[in-house]
C-alpha cells in the first residue's frame, strides 16, 4: 500500500505540483522568494568535495609515472592506458578482483538467506529470550574487527579453512548477519500481519507463503539488506587480509603488498584503486531505486 | 509490537543465525578471554595470572592516550557528519532524474574499499603529487600530514567526513521521503516558517533513521583502522594511533597476547556500553516526545 502510494506520488509529482501548488517544493520556493539558489549550491559543493579526490585518482591512473612525479597538471597531458593494461594482463593483479568478488557474493548470499527467517521470527512472534537474542546479535555488529583478527586466524587455521574464500565469507558474517537481520526486521514489521493470517487460512504452508507471497512483498528490503552486506564485505580489509595468503587474496591486500614490494608505482596503484570503485558503482546503479524507496518503506 | 503472539517454535527460524554467529563470534571471543587471564613463555604452556593484564592495561599511559584520541575522534565525527548529513538530505533535488544521479554519486565513497579510501587521500594530500597538498602549499599554508600532528588529524577527519557523510545523508533522505505531502500542506495553511517545518515535521520523522545513523557512525568510527593506518600509519609519533591501530600493533606486531586480549575485552565492552547509552537516550527521548501527542 505504502509503496504504491510512494510510486504514485513520484510518478504524478510533476502535474500534481503544477495543478495544486501545494507540495513541499512549492512551499519552500515561495517562502524563499528569489535570490541565490542555496540548496543546489550546497549540494553541488558537497558533490564536488566527494568527486575531486576520486577524479584525482582516476586522472593519475591515466598518467605515466614520470608525468606524475615531474609535472603537475589537472588532467593527463600524455594519456596512457598502460597502467590498466598491466593490471588486466597480470594474474597476480586481476585474480585479486576475482577473489574479492567470490567471497563478497558468498557472504551476501549466506547473510541474507539465514537472516530472512530469523528476521521473520523477530518481527512476528515472541519467544523465550527474543529481546536478549536480538541485542546479542547487534553486539556482534559492534565488535571491532581488530579484536577478532588473531582469534579468527587461529580458528580458521585449526579447521583447515585458512586462505579459502569461504573463510572470509564466514568471518564477514560476524557483522553482516546482525545488520541484515536488523534491516529485514524493520521492513517485515511494515507488512501487516493480516496478510500472513489470510494466507494461512487460504491453506498456504509456511515455506510456500514465505517464498511466494512474503518475499516479493519485502523485495526492496531484501535489496537494501543485500546492498549493505555487499558493501561492508567488499570494503573490509583487516579480516580479509588476515585470513588469506595466496589463493584467496583480496585485491585490497594485493594493493598494499605490491606498494611496499615494488617501491612507489603510483600509476599502477591509482589504476588498481580506480578499478575497485567499478563493482561498487555498478551495484549502486542497479539498486538506486531500491535505496531511495527501500529505506523509506522500512525502518521509518 | 505488544500484540505479537508467543510462539516458541520461532526458535527454529532463528537457529541458523544463532549457530552461524555463535561459530564466528563466541569461539573467537572465548579465545580472547582465555588469553586475557593467562601468560605464556612459549611452548604452548600457559599459566593463570588472573586480572593482572587488565590491571596493566587500565594503568598504562599508552592505553589512556589511545583511548582519549579515540573518544575525541568519534565525537568530532558525530558532530560534523550528523548535521552535515541532515543538511545534504534537505538539499536533495526534487526531480526524479537528478535524484537518481545525486544518489549514485553520493553512494560512491561508501563502496570504495577502505584501504583504497586511504590510498586516495594519501595521494590527494601529498605535497608533491596531490591536488589538495599542492594547492594548500601554493597558497602558502605549511601543510604536511606526515610530519605535523594537527595536519594529520585534519586529514583523517576530513577523509572520514568524505567517506561516511553520505550514509547519514542517505538515511535522512529516506526518512524525509516518508513524510506525506499532507503534512507540508497543513504547515503551509498554518503559515509555518521554514524552521518550524524542520523542527516539528521533518526532524521528528527522521528520528528513527537518525538513531540508526548515529549508532552506525559511532560504532564504525570507534573501530576505525584501515583508513588512518594507510594514510598516516598511526603517526606522526603516535598522534593518530587510535584504539584498533594500537591493538593490532600490540597483538600482531609485538605478539603481546595477554595484554592485547585484555585490551580487546575492555575495548569491546566500551563500545557496547556507549552504544547502549546512545540507544537508551535516543529512544527514551523519542518516547517522551510521543506521549503528549498521543
From TrEMBL, chain A:
Keywords noted in UniProt: Cell membrane, Membrane, Transmembrane, Transmembrane helix, Transport
One GO CC annotation: plasma membrane
Main location, first listed in the record: membrane
Location relative to the cell: Cell membrane
Region (Disordered): 1-31
Membrane-crossing segments per the record: 38-58, 102-122, 134-153, 165-184, 213-235, 266-287
Any single biological process term in GO: transmembrane transport
A Pfam family of this chain: BPD_transp_1
Membrane topology of this protein: Multi-pass membrane protein
Similarity-based family: Belongs to the binding-protein-dependent transport system permease family.
Annotated protein name in UniProt: Glycerol transport system permease protein
TrEMBL record, chain B:
A GO biological-process term: transmembrane transport
Membrane topology: Multi-pass membrane protein
GO CC field: plasma membrane
Database matches in InterPro entries: MetI-like (IPR000515), MetI-like_sf (IPR035906), Sugar_ABC_transporter (IPR052730)
ABC transmembrane type-1 domain sequence ranges: 67-278
Keyword line: Membrane, Transmembrane, Transmembrane helix, Transport
Cellular localisation: Cell membrane
Keyword set includes Nucleus: no
Family to which the UniProt record says this protein belongs: Belongs to the binding-protein-dependent transport system permease family.
Protein name: Glycerol transport system permease protein
Organism: Roseospira goensis
Amino acid at each position: 500500500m505504502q509503496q504504491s502510494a510512494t510510486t504514485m506520488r513520484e510518478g504524478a509529482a510533476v502535474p500534481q505540483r503544477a495543478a495544486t501548488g501545494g507540495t513541499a517544493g512549492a512551499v519552500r520556493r515561495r517562502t524563499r522568494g528569489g535570490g541565490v539558489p542555496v540548496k543546489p549550491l550546497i549540494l553541488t559543493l558537497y558533490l564536488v568535495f566527494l568527486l575531486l579526490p576520486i577524479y584525482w585518482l582516476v586522472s593519475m591512473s591515466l598518467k605515466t609515472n614520470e608525468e606524475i612525479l615531474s609535472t603537475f597538471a589537472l588532467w593527463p597531458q600524455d594519456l596512457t592506458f598502460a597502467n590498466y593494461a598491466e593490471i588486466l594482463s597480470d594474474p597476480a593483479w586481476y585474480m585479486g578482483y576475482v577473489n574479492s568478488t567470490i567471497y563478497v557474493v558468498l557472504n551476501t548470499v549466506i547473510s541474507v538467506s539465514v537472516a530472512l527467517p530469523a528476521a521473520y521470527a523477530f518481527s512476528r512472534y515472541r519467544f523465550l529470550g527474543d529481546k536478549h537474542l536480538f541485542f546479542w546479535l547487534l553486539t556482534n555488529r559492534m565488535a571491532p574487527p581488530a579484536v577478532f583478527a588473531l582469534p579468527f586466524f587461529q580458528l580458521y587455521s585449526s579447521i583447515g579453512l585458512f586462505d579459502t574464500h569461504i573463510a572470509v565469507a564466514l568471518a564477514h558474517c560476524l557483522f553482516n548477519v546482525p545488520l541484515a537481520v536488523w534491516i529485514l526486521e524493520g521492513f517485515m514489521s511494515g507488512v501487516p500481519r493480516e496478510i500472513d493470517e489470510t494466507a494461512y487460512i487460504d491453506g498456504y504452508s509456511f515455506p510456500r507463503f514465505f517464498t511466494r507471497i512474503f518475499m516479493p512483498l519485502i523485495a526492496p528490503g531484501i535489496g537494501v539488506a543485500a546492498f549493505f552486506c555487499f558493501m561492508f564485505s567488499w570494503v573490509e580489509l583487516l579480516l580479509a587480509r588476515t585470513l588469506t595468503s595466496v589463493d584467496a587474496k583480496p585485491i585490497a591486500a594485493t594493493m598494499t603488498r605490491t606498494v611496499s614490494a615494488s617501491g612507489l608505482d603510483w600509476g599502477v596503484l591509482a589504476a588498481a584503486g580506480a578499478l575497485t570503485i567499478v563493482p561498487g558503482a555498478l551495484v549502486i546503479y542497479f539498486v538506486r531505486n531500491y535505496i531511495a524507496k527501500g529505506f523509506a518503506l522500512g525502518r521509518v | 509490537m505488544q500484540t505479537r503472539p508467543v510462539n516458541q517454535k520461532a526458535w527454529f527460524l532463528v537457529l541458523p543465525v544463532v549457530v552461524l554467529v555463535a561459530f564466528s563470534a563466541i569461539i573467537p571471543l572465548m579465545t580472547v578471554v582465555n588469553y586475557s587471564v593467562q601468560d605464556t613463555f612459549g611452548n604452548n604452556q600457559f599459566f593463570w595470572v588472573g586480572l593482572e593484564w587488565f590491571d596493566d592495561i587500565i594503568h598504562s599511559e599508552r592505553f589512556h592516550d589511545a583511548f582519549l584520541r579515540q573518544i575525541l575522534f568519534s565525537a568530532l565525527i558525530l558532530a560534523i557528519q550528523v548535521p552535515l548529513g541532515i543538511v545534504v538530505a534537505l538539499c536533495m533535488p526534487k526531480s526524479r532524474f537528478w535524484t537518481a544521479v545525486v544518489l549514485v554519486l553520493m553512494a560512491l565513497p561508501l563502496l570504495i574499499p577502505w584501504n583504497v579510501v586511504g590510498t586516495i587521500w594519501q595521494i590527494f594530500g601529498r605535497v608533491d603529487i596531490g591536488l589538495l597538498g599542492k594547492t594548500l602549499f601554493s597558497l602558502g599554508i605549511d601543510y604536511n600530514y606526515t610530519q605535523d600532528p594537527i595536519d594529520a588529524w585534519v586529514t583523517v577527519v576530513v577523509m572520514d567526513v568524505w567517506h561516511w557523510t553520505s550514509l547519514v545523508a542517505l538515511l535522512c533522505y529516506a526518512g524525509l521521503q516518508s513524510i506525506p505531502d499532507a503534512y507540508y500542506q497543513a504547515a503551509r495553511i498554518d503559515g509555518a516558517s521554514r524552521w518550524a517545518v524542520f523542527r516539528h515535521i521533518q526532524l521528528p520523522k527522521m528520528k528513527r533513521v537518525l538513531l540508526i545513523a548515529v549508532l552506525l557512525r559511532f560504532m564504525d568510527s570507534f573501530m576505525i583502522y584501515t583508513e588512518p593506518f594507510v594514510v598516516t600509519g598511526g603517526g606522526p609519533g603516535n598522534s593518530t594511533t587510535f584504539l584498533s591501530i594500537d591493538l593490532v600493533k600490540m597483538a600482531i606486531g609485538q605478539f603481546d597476547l595477554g595484554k592485547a586480549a585484555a585490551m580487546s575485552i575492555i575495548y569491546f565492552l566500551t563500545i557496547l556500553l556507549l552504544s547502549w547509552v546512545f540507544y537508551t537516550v535516543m529512544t527514551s527521548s523519542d518516547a517522551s516526545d510521543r506521549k503528549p501527542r498521543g
